[in-house]
Amino acid sequence: MSRMTVNDRPVQFDLDPEMPLVHALRDAMNLTGTKACGGDCVGACMVLVDGAALRSCRITLAEAEGRFITTIEGLSRDRSHPVQQAMVAEQAIQCGYCTPGIVIAAAALIQRNSSPSEAEIVEAIPNMCRCGVYPRLVRAVQRAGRVQQRRENISAAPPPGISTEDAARAVPALRPGRGMETSD
Predict the structure, then answer these.
(1) CA 19, CA 60: separation in Å to the nearest integer?
(2) What are the residue ranges spanned by the domains of the chain?
(3) SS3 of 26, please?
(4) Is this prediction's pTM over 0.70?
C-alpha cells in the first residue's frame, strides 16, 4: 500500500508500487490535468513532489511514498496562482496539452527565484511545447515573478463568460448562454 499526500489530502494506493505516479493520479484519482506523456516525456506529466517539479511518468508509487504531491488541480482551484494568471495575461497558452506541466514547472521556479532570467527559465522549464509559445512563456514567468513579489497585480482569471465557481470545477458544464456569448 503506497501512502502519500496529494493536493493536501492523505491518500493510499493499493496498486503495484512500480506503477508510474502519473497513472495513479489520472486513473485512480481522476486528476486528469496531469497529462500522460505517452513515452515522449515532454513534461506534460509534471507535478510538484515536496515542492520540486518532477515528471510523474518517471516516479513510481514506491518512490512517491510519504511525499507531498501537488498536481495542477491542487495548485489553485480558482486559477489565482501567479503563474496561471500570467499565462492567461500573456496569452502563453495555445492548444493547452503542455500547459499544466509548464505551469507546475514555472510555479516551482518562481517559488525559489521570483526574478528569473530568460536563461534560468529555459533551464527550469524543460517542457516541450509543439505550439511554440516560448517567447510568451518567458514573459509570463517573469510577470508571475513580479506578481509573486507583489510588484504587479493581474486579474486575468477566470476567462470571460465563466464564473469563478464554474472555473473551479474539475469539468465545467457547458450550459446554453454561459461562455458562449458573442459580441457584435
Answers:
(1) 5
(2) 2-75, 82-148
(3) helix
(4) yes
Helix (H, G, I), strand (E, B), or coil: what is residue 83? helix
The β-bridge relationship of strands 9-13 and 2-6 is antiparallel
* pLDDT tens-digit series, residues 34-58: 988 766 678 889 999 999 999 999 9
The sign of the CA dihedral 76, 80, 81, 87 is: positive
**Distance (Å, whole) CA 18 – CA 63:** 8
Amino acid at 77: R
Is CATH 3.30.930.10 the classification given to domain 2-75?
no
Q: How far is CA 57 from the centre of its chain?
A: 15
Q: Which amino acid is at 71?
A: T
C-alpha cell at 182: 458573442
